Amino acid sequence: MDASCQCGAVKFKTPTPKPLALYICHCQDCQRQASSAFGTSAIFPRFKLPDTELLSCYTRQTSLGDTLYCYFCKQCGTRLIHTSPNKNVVSVKGGCIEGLDWRTAIHIWTKSAMVPIPEGSETHSEYSERTDYMGADSQGEPLDQPGELVG
After folding, report:
1. Are 124 and 110 spatial neighbours (Cβ–Cβ below 8 Å)?
2. What phi, psi does 150 have (nearest 5°)?
3. Which parts of this chain are annotated as the region Disordered (predicted)?
4. CA distances for 5 relative to 16, 35, 95, 116, angstroms
5. Whole-number Å distance between alpha carbons of 64 and 141
């Protein structure tokens, strides 16, 4: 899938033609990060970052004590990718990817939702422990759950 920041300086392709999972997170951290009612995360197997000359990184501790690396475009500030060193999946921010099928999105942290959740959507009041996308990366290693990458 094609992805880019708002100004177009950072462009990249995802490693697979569709995400392993797509989350719409209503937690307060994602609301602050997105300056909106929710944040979106498309989960992909870990891949090489786009041109790091064009990226800056904000780091923060997660509630589980992991370090979360939040990459954004140096020019326009668009948040693009979240990753953690102990995970072999990454979270690509959904708004920067062309052609996502939002009907498959899983709504998490709905207890903090500021907008109605579409009827019929899969929902979780906090995080999802969903494991049906578990598979293997290109080296045959099992894929991690995104955990704190989405909330």
Report:
1. yes
2. -115, 0
3. 119-151
4. 19, 16, 9, 28
5. 23
Could you give the 3-state DSSP secondary structure of residue 123? strand
| Amino acid symbol at 63 | S
pTM above 0.85, yes or no: no
What residue type is 86 in one-letter code?
A: N
Pairing of strands 21-25, 106-108: parallel
**Residue of 135, 25, 122, 138 whose CA lies nearest to 82:** 25
The H or E element containing residue 45 is strand 39-45
pLDDT tens-digit series, residues 95-113: 999 999 888 888 887 777 7
Asked if 11 contacts 4 with a C-beta cutoff of 8 angstroms, the reply is yes
Residue 85 has pLDDT above 60, yes or no: yes
Residue 107 and residue 24 in contact, taking contact as beta carbons nearer than 8 Å: yes
Identify the CA nearest to 81 among candidates 9, 8, 10, 7. 10
Q: What percent of the chain has pLDDT over 70?
A: 77
Which tokens is 52 given? 């790091």
